[in-house]
Amino acid sequence: MPGGRFGILLSLAPASAMELLPHPPAVLQTLGGLWLLFGAPVLLWRAVAWRVVTSGTAAFLLAAGFSVMTDMVVALTVNTALPPLGIDRPLTRPILALATTVVLVVLGALAPETQRAEASPDRPGGLAGLFAVRGLRPVAALGALALVLSVAGPIRLNNGLGGAVSTVAMVVVAALIALLLLRRARYPVPVLEFGLYCASAALLLLTSLRGQYITGHDIQKEFLYFRLALGGEHWSIGTYTDPYNACLSITLLPVSVFQLTALPDTLIFKVVLPLLFALTPVLVHRAVRNVAPRLVALMSAVYFIVFPTFLTDMPYLGRQEIAFLLLGCAMMVLTDSRGSLRMRRIVFVVLLAGIVLSHYSTTYVVVGTLAVSFLIDKVWRLASRRGRKRVRRRRREDRMLSFLSWWVVAVPAALALLWAGPLTHTGGQAERTLSAVAQAVVGGESQSGSSDTAYSIFGGVKTSPTKRLHDYRTELLEQTRAERTSGDYLPLKKIDDLSTPVVDVPKMKLTALGQVLNAVGISVPGLNGALRQGAALFFQVMVMAGFVVALRARRSTFRPVRDQVTIAAGAWCMVAVFTLVPQLSVDYSLLRAFQQGLFFFGPFLATATLWALRWAGRRTVLLACTLLAGLLLDLAGVVPKALGGYPAQVQLSNSGQYYAIYYPHAEERRAAMWLDARLGKDGVGLVQTDRFSYARLQALITHPTVADIDPADLRTDSYVLLGTTPTRTGQVTVFYGGDLITYQYPMRVLDDRDVIYSNGGAVIYR
Questions:
Q1: Cβ-count burial of 41 within 10 angstroms (0-12 exposed, 13-18 middle, 19+ buried)?
Q2: Which end of the chain, N or C, is more open, meaning fewer C-beta atoms within 10 Å of its C-beta?
Q3: pLDDT category, 430, cuts 50, 70, 90?
Q4: Distances (CA, A) of 765 to 720, 722, 751
Q5: Helix ranges (DSSP H) in 553-647
Q6: Is the predicted pLDDT of residue 123 greater than 50, yes or no?
């Protein structure tokens, strides 16, 4: 056994022993747990990864994806195998530690010897020369500064201070990205990828670290299912047949991290998962670098970071963070054509199986993309003149030239159906979505799509908030019509007398700079809106232009192979479908679909940008750098923060719509615990609160709860809990048809109830 592997396996002994102690020191337990879960697996899997990919950093990145999958599979195995043997709590620290150690020992014994490449500019020879690598010092300095500021900024905001530090952090990230672009030819590729990781990690932490507790949308429900699995130290899909519970990325993976380390549970979701996801832009760069010049690869990764969903939504989607990490690994394997085609196909399917275990929606979109691209490839080949004339002689060669084969598409689709169907019985949401889609296709009634489709060039429509609220209330009245006559709900006459006007999302006051622009006749709100709308149009037009440029332009910097064209076209078709079929844009955000599409059509976007700026000659890269930095600063909120006249963003301010509905407050948490204790003594009682207060408090309220206090859905015998935002502003927000609608709540509807609890930030009525 090679000495390096022997040393890794030998290190497992003290790490495992530390986990078996009753009360190990917190620092040592954290180090030992992280080594068992990520450190040792990455080093051992790297030897296997070398057989699939052909560069050192690619092997490291693929090993990271394998390690995450290993952690999920180990936890799933002990969770499934041990209960029949009489062990009711299989997810304990000793069991997980021993199981992980055994798997790593077996892996170390079976893994091939790590290939060692010769020293090159991309691969430093040793630790002594590491700090002498060109570009590492400035990149490390800016990266470290960005990370420090990205931690300090949210901490200041969480303590009621201003967002200046967070704003500076984003400027530093923009400067780091500019440095990487301008010095791309002088710095080794690993240095560029290290800088990308620091930039993406800093942006993610600026959002994920907001709030003393779990902050965000989906992440609050994800955290609940993690706590349910952790509480009984056993994951059971039969107890909670919810698609969230079927995502091992937010149940078994965090449970393993919590049990084997001394990290607080909230930090796993706010730090560990984002830092794993921060590898994804690096994977995008590496996947594109396999087939395109360094500049195109770097710009593709930066576009992935710059797109607004990366900063505003991905830190709140732990299950999709892990799924995207594995998707990035899959794309890197797909484009590394120097490796064995058969081996790459097998590993690609294995990684897609990991996505199946991680996130249902990402799986469905990937399978749809692959299916469409497979059909495009077949049509392309049949339509080609060469294929028509020499189909028999070319059949085998054509099959070898295409990465996608029927089983590469069929196996992930079958695994997705198997996991969502007989194994977990959580495919109900997908079935309802497909039913609504089919109904819309055949001409039946369908609800309008998300207003995000209004940004699409495929012709989406923006529905007014007033119309959304009217449709929402009409649906509630229809759902409660049968029980309304029994007195369980408010009478219709009383509801009709109530006024619930829609409230516009508040905008920040104009700054001094904004007032100057306003004084010279430039509407700052109009300018901010135009910049956002222009950015949306830019992304879409440039992607479409990228296909033309890459395939037809004589001076294109990127010449894609057939696989890239077909898969990118398949991804673009999926974005179009999400726009044209309303139900899809409601159930799965169009912006998230586009973010996922950037894995596939990112290089086309970068190519079109360089082609559009070719007139600048030697200044093309400088202009591209300015464009990307400007997009980042605008879409991340720095430009609106400097001007005012735009809704505040939670990563920079203690205000705005996201802050109002997702930010947790101590007062409402105390109110929820008080009410839950009272209900525990009384033994009966139904709780009602608005959707977003419930989302923030669902882990604390263990009694039956209705996540709605709209007058049309208000029960006469319920406890009503008003969270911090309704208490302080009198406003309630609902999510309907893929849109957020805020309206002024008619407080007089609660006048006939008694106030039984109030702490200035939350009120409970009975």
A1: buried
A2: N
A3: low
A4: 5, 8, 9
A5: 562-580, 582-587, 590-612, 620-635, 638-643
A6: no
In angstroms, the Cα distances linking 176 to 121, 190, 637 are 21, 15, 17
* Partners of 733 in the β-ladder: 742
* Structure tokens given for 374: 């497979």
Tokens 């997908």 correspond to what residue? Answer: 430
Mean of pLDDT over the chain: 87
Closest CA to 677 of 657, 703, 697: 703
Helix (H) or strand (E) holding 719: strand 719-722
Structure tokens at 256: 């393993």
CA pair distance 654, 728, nearest whole angstrom: 14
**Lookup: tokens for 649:** 């963003």
pLDDT at 378: 86
Q: For 704-725, what is each residue's pLDDT tens digit?
A: 889 999 999 899 889 999 999 9
Which residues have a Cβ under 8 Å from the Cβ of 420 and sit 6 or more positions away?
243, 246, 360, 426, 427, 430
Tokens (6 digits) for 580: 């044209």
Sort 180 into a burial class: Cβ within 10 Å, 0-12 / 13-18 / 19+: buried
Rg value, the chain, Cα: 27
Q: Do the Cβ atoms of 426 and 243 come closer than 8 Å?
A: yes
Give yes or no for residue 449 having a pLDDT over 80. no
Task: Give which of 71, 29, 66 is closest to 50, Cα–Cα.
Answer: 66
Contact 761, 727 (CB under 8 A): yes
CB 631 within 8 A of CB 306: yes
**Helix 590-612 and helix 620-635, axial crossing angle in degrees, nearest 10:** 160
Query: How many percent of the chain have pLDDT more than 70?
Result: 89
Token readout for 446 is: 């369908």
Q: How many Å apart are CA 601 and CA 288, to the nearest integer? A: 10
pLDDT on residue 398: 42
738 dihedral zone (left: phi>0; alpha: psi -120 to 50; beta): left
Instruction: Provide the whole-model pTM.
Output: 0.92
Of the ranges 30-44, 229-243, 456-470, which one carries the lowest mean pLDDT score?
456-470
Place of tokens 């559009």: 612
